[in-house]
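Chapter review. Work through the record for EcsC family protein before attempting the end-of-chapter questions.
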Amino acid sequence: MENRELLEQHLQEIQVWEKDQKDLWFWEKLGRIPFKLLDKMTPAFLQNKIALLVDELGNYIQSGGKYLINEQAMIQKIRDHSSTQHIITISDIGQIPLEDMISLSDKLQNERVKFATVQGVSTGFGGIFTLAIDIPMILGTALKTLQEIAIIHGYDPNDKMERIFIVKCLQFTSADIVGKEAILQELSTINSSKKASDNMISQLQGWQEVFYTYRDQLGWKKLFQMIPIAGMVFGAYANKGMIQDVAETGIMLYRKRRIYEKLTELDC
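Structure tokens for EcsC family protein:
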């Protein structure tokens, strides 16, 4: 059984993190400007690629699409690295100690950040032409990372509501102060009622809102990635920062859900 004092301590850390998210760095504010100019400079084939990704994100929420991961492989990985061996299903993972979840999450974040950095270097080599490859790859990496984080905390990404939660995590990463507060409020009610779930779906206002917010967050970073050769440096920096932020958001928000559920179990 989890220790209440330890759970509440971790919950306080998450609340501090949430407060820190309510202010944008100067560069993040500046980063929302260049992509509006970049739209006018972007070739048609890249604009078409972006349009396709909007549809793919919608398909992911509805069915998982090509981004849905193999949960059995992830369960085995968790079983191998957890102090609890009796793990058969994703719901069993919810019962492992929080410290195991933290350890597994940190390891996953480091692995995905390294992968994204290498990816940014390789796709930054050719400037704007390989940028067309990089954008869908980084989106896929972000969704895969968030699904893995969900499973680490005992939540099944095969469930449509979890996929909505995942897309909300993606949206939270690049939202402004007002947006972050609204998303935190929405996510706090995700399991409370079907009406709350329906409201969350409607508040996405189409998948375009989520994707373009995500894209704007890359801003000036991806602008410089358009330069051949030099784009390797900027690509590595942009992708590393993106996945690091996405993973941190997913870890904190999923950990918060799991802590509340563990505290509820202690009260029963």
